[in-house]
Amino acid sequence: MIDLRTVPHWLNAGATQSGKSNWANAVIKSLAPQPVALVGFDLKGGVEFTPYAPRLSALATNRKESVDLLSDLVGEVENRMALCRAHGARNVWTLPEALRPVPVVVLVDADRAISDVLNALVQADQKPDGDDDDGPAGSLVPVAKLHGGSLRPLQRSRPGSGFIS
């Protein structure tokens, strides 16, 4: 069982043919029986995550679907933030069990493509006056951690120093 409170985000990186897909499959199989919503971004046309589509709550396989799904996820995080505010909780893990929403695990294959989608979503959220505020998409990952979200970029062949922060 994976405790999403202690390990909310991770990255699977490695050279071509190093076993990233095998590891990703093992992670998905271990998460499948847990009480979580699994959301997949597979921008290689669905070749990695389509076999798991019956268990996934949502699967995006192209840029348009990804932008739409990310917008939905931003809305979900905002709803969870409102729920926490209404009950005086710092995060979903401190809400009473009966009110706690199901954790959302976001599985990403081909993270470079998803970063392009995130950038497109951030640009769509920016204010016309040129304000630097990234809007809800810019803080999705850190805020999602507090509200039962978990990001799993499962495949990365060559992580550069600019990617890992």
From TrEMBL:
Keyword Nucleotide-binding on entry: yes
Pfam families, per the entry: FtsK_SpoIIIE
Keyword Signal: no
Annotated keywords: ATP-binding, Nucleotide-binding
Cross-referenced InterPro entries: FtsK/SpoIIIE/SftA (IPR050206), FtsK_dom (IPR002543), P-loop_NTPase (IPR027417)
Chain ranges of the FtsK domain: 2-94
Chain intervals for the UniProt region annotation (Disordered): 125-165
Transmembrane region(s): none
PANTHER family attached to this UniProt entry: DNA TRANSLOCASE FTSK, SPORULATION PROTEIN RELATED
Name the record gives this protein: FtsK domain-containing protein
